[in-house]
Amino acid sequence: MGAVMKRFLISGVGLLSALMVLEPALAADQPAQPKRERAAQQRAPAQQRAPAQQQTASQQSSNWSGGQLGGSNGVSSVSNNFAEPGAFVCPSAFAFGSTCFENLLVFSGHKSSYTIGPFVGWRWQVGKSPVGGPVVLGIEADWSWKKAETSGFLGATSCFGVGCSLLRTDAKTGSIKQSWDASIRGRLGVLVTPWTLVYGTGGVAFEEVTGSFAYNGVILSCVTPSPCVPSGTSASALANWSDTRVGGTGGVGVETEVWRGVKARIEYRYTDFGSQTKNFPVSTICGTSFGCNTPSGVVSISTRESFHTVRVGLGVDF
Which of 82, 86, 80, 108 is nearest to 237 (CA)? Predict the structure, then answer.
């Protein structure tokens, strides 16, 4: 994770810890009863005091069954990987893979992006767990906006023939961007106190991924004493795409009630969309002077997207 994400995680943990400490204190901070009322309660039979004790106990409990609607925001550390080993042009008499090779465009990055969005879910509080606390099951869906783009550029030259009589210039640019993401997940947690839930979550994830690629390769004739001039042989490609990818997501979190029916959370999740390959045509022009030898007809681009996210959120029960 980057430095921004680490600072956000430390701040979020501090905020949630403060709320967890403050909430029970606020619940216990009730006005003191006058002496006469306390004495009257002490003289009252046990049967009369029992309802008041039951009411106090119910006030100290927290409801974890039902619906929840809220929002969260945080930081995503986004990994974009891009590899293009598929666009080239070779002059005649120079075989690809033997005396003519392609120049690869490869880049990756771990961009940090602010992310924000809503969530909605439903929970069921069930029996005791092996560690003693009540178990809470749930299902939840969320949607988040983010913007994390990585790009790369390659400018290269390749020599052919004695004294570099032929010269190829290559220019390649590429980009990959992750935009919105969403998920549908299950949740399983244990109440470590009546107000605090520790949980794990996992499910299917969706994301919009866009990308672009451009290539231009030109064969130049560099026979002395003339300067290098275009030979008429060249290749080019231009591609843009936008896909909705499907992957998996999983993580852990802590959620606590800060007011009656209002719960705060901090959550970490890792999401991975795997690898994919995009194929696009390459347009090749073979000049009459030097021609082409097995020009590339297709450019193949391999990408892989994933991200780590830390979110702080607030939800309202319904």
Answer: 86
Report DSSP letters for 123-146, one per residue: EEEEEE-TTSSEEEEEEEEEEEB-
The pTM (predicted TM-score) of the whole model is: 0.75
**Burial readout 48-87 (b: 16 or more C-beta within 10 A, e: otherwise):** eeeeeeeeeeeeeebebeeebebbbebbbbbbbbbbbebb
Contacts (Cβ under 8 Å, ≥6 apart) of 152: 82, 105, 106, 107, 173, 174, 175
Name all contacts of 279-285 with Cβ < 8 Å and 24+ positions apart: 280/213, 280/237, 280/239, 281/237, 282/86, 282/87, 282/215, 282/235, 282/236, 282/237, 283/235, 283/236, 283/237, 284/89, 284/234, 284/235, 285/232, 285/233, 285/234, 285/235
Distance CA 247, CA 273 (A): 4
Query: Cα(first)–Cα(last) distance of the chain, in Å?
Result: 35
Structure tokens at 231: 């030979």
Secondary structure class of 36 (helix, strand, coil) = helix
Reported as a single tens digit per residue, the pLDDT across 122-164 is: 999 998 877 778 999 999 999 999 999 999 999 999 999 888 8
Q: Which two tokens stand for residue 314?
A: 């607030």
Alpha-carbon distance of 247 to 262, in angstroms, equals 31
- Give the separation between CA 147 and CA 179, rounded to whole angstroms: 5
Pairing label, strands 262-281, 166-193: unpaired
Condensed to tens digits (0 to 9), the pLDDT of residues 207-217 reads 999 999 999 99
Helical (H) or strand (E) element with 7:
helix 3-28
Give the whole-angstrom CA distance, residue 95 versus residue 102.
11
CB-hemisphere CA count at 13 Å for 201?
A: 30
Reported for 99-103, long-range contacts at CB under 8 A and 24+ positions apart, including other chains, are 99/160, 100/158, 100/160, 100/293, 101/158, 102/296, 103/154, 103/156, 103/158, 103/170, 103/172
Bridge partners, 304 (sequence order): 81, 275
